[in-house]
Structure to design on (556 residues):
């Protein structure tokens, strides 16, 4: 009897296995040839994607019909990349990609071609500008085929997901603007592999985690990463960066104020550290930043007094130390700075201010402990806070290291341009003053002689060609002539290779805070570029570097 009891479960299990096998066999036998072919195609497509990602294979397996004629293989690769991206765009309310049809990719909206730097007899795609398109979708790996582009601008859209690793192939990329989108995940490490990158704009996204210390060893000129979710402490090599403007506002950084910032005195013009969690005293050596015009460390947890060495920052136009826990007297030399126009030190615990501060064009001294001044803190608040002396050494922050940072590794400067340089642009207005936002219209037609950028990127190593300089654009740009869409091809075009599915979660677009001014366009570039062909690309205005630089939200 006991043996029968053990045998019954065995037969029950065997019966279930047989039924499952029969059902699977029935499904396979009932599937017609078309169904089996469909299953095989889907499996082959998944396998192709695996090969492309793992083995870094580009387009050897892609067969395009002979009726699609391309002037050179690079335009063929651009066609594959753009068609794959078009399929990954799930919303295009302005119909910017409606004329992305046919082999004439240079006539696609937002796509700009120029003569190749390493072969003057061919045209290649040199830039992508789809700013303010309100498009939704994601970036595809095939964009890595656009190896000749110098700028990639997609700000003020609804792109999500991550930056593809294939971007490491964009060895000539000079400007990368992904701002005001819905990108997420950790810092896009692929940008560290871009040797010619000068302008990095990741603001108003959902990036999180810490910043790689290698970012501050790159030869960048502008870093905008404000309004994300970056956290942890700033790395010790923060001051190695040769940037002229860096904006870290509205993240979750904490720890000590980065004293190595003082090492950036030769290049730094604007620094925005507001609304983080920095907790320490301001270093006395801050006065060495003599080229800085905008310094904003508001909305942190800074203690101690305002260093009197700030009176040596002779170029300072805007100083914001509001919403901290600073105390003591405002140094008289600060308000006597020759260019200072805007000084806010509200919501602190200062007990004295010189009369010169009251003569500034814009100042805010409210919510302090200043006698005979309106809108101050209560006597009890001031007494309680000031009764506890501040000891800056208790924060155990790194002391300032006066040794200069190691210079970035660069190659020799490129030869001077062959054509005479254009006249210099008109001086930019102070970045603290409001300026009109960049227009949302399409890019202007190319100038005959584009003005040079601010710096000349070093020439590339022997295999890759030198990068085309990012052009300087005129502000505001005139409307472009209407581009008629290319004629449809005479044959049916096959669909491009499959791309990953679109993002499932799309966080709401960030809205700029009230305290920010409308952004002027990107930084002005003055030094001569390497010789380059006339670039038919979008040219941003040259009205100065944006302060806190929130890009305008898309118009719905």
């Amino acid at each position: 009897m006991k043996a029968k009891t053990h045998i019954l479960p065995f037969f029950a299990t065997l019966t279930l296995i047989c039924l499952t096998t029969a059902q699977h066999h029935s499904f396979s036998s009932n599937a017609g040839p078309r169904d089996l072919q469909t299953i095989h195609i889907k499996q082959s497509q998944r396998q192709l994607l695996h090969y492309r990602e793992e083995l870094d294979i580009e387009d050897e397996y892609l067969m395009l019909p002979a009726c699609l004629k391309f002037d050179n293989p690079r335009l063929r690769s651009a066609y594959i990349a753009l068609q794959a991206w078009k399929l990954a765009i799930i919303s295009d309310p302005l119909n910017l990609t409606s004329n992305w049809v046919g082999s004439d990719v240079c006539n696609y909206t937002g796509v700009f071609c120029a003569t190749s730097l390493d072969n003057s007899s061919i045209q290649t795609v040199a830039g992508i500008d789809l700013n303010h398109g309100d498009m939704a979708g994601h970036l595809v790996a095939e964009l890595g085929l656009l190896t000749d582009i110098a700028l990639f601008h997609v700000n003020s859209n609804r792109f999500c997901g991550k930056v593809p690793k294939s971007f490491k192939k964009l060895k000539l990329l000079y400007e990368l603007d992904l701002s005001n989108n819905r990108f997420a995940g950790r810092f896009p490490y692929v940008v560290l592999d871009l040797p010619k990158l000068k302008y990095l704009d990741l603001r108003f996204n959902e990036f999180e985690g810490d910043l790689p210390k290698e970012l501050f060893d790159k030869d960048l000129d502008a870093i905008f990463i404000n309004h994300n979710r970056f956290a942890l402490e700033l790395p010790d090599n923060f001051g190695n960066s040769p940037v002229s403007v860096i904006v870290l506002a509205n993240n979750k950084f904490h720890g000590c104020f980065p004293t190595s910032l003082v090492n950036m005195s030769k290049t730094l013009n604007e620094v925005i550290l507001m609304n983080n969690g920095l907790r320490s005293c301001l270093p006395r050596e801050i006065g060495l930043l003599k080229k800085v015009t905008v310094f904003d460390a508001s909305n942190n947890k800074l203690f101690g007094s305002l260093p009197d060495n700030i009176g040596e920052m002779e170029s300072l136009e805007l100083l914001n130390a509001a919403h901290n826990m600073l105390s003591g007297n405002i140094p008289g030399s600060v308000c006597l700075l020759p260019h200072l126009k805007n000084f806010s030190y509200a919501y602190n615990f200062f007990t004295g201010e010189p009369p010169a501060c009251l003569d500034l064009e814009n100042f805010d001294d409210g919510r302090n402990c200043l006698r005979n001044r309106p809108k101050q803190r209560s006597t009890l608040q001031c007494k309680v806070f000031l009764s506890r002396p501040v000891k800056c050494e208790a924060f155990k922050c790194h002391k300032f290291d006066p040794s200069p940072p190691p210079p970035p590794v660069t190659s020799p400067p490129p030869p001077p341009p062959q054509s005479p340089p254009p006249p210099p642009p008109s001086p930019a207005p102070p970045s603290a003053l409001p300026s009109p936002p960049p227009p949302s219209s399409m890019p202007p037609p190319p100038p005959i002689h584009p003005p040079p950028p601010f710096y000349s990127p070093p020439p590339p190593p022997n295999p890759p060609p030198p990068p085309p300089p990012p052009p300087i654009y005129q502000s505001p740009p005139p409307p472009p002539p209407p581009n008629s869409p290319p004629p449809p091809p005479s044959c049916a075009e096959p669909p491009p290779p499959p791309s990953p599915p679109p993002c499932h979660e799309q966080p709401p677009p960030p809205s700029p805070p009230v305290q920010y001014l409308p952004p002027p366009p990107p930084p002005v570039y003055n030094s001569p570029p390497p010789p380059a062909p006339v670039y038919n690309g979008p040219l941003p205005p040259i009205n100065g570097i944006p302060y806190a630089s929130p890009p305008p939200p898309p118009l719905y």
Observations:
- The mean pLDDT is 75.
- Residues 23 and 49 are 31 Å apart (CA to CA).
- The radius of gyration is 29 Å.
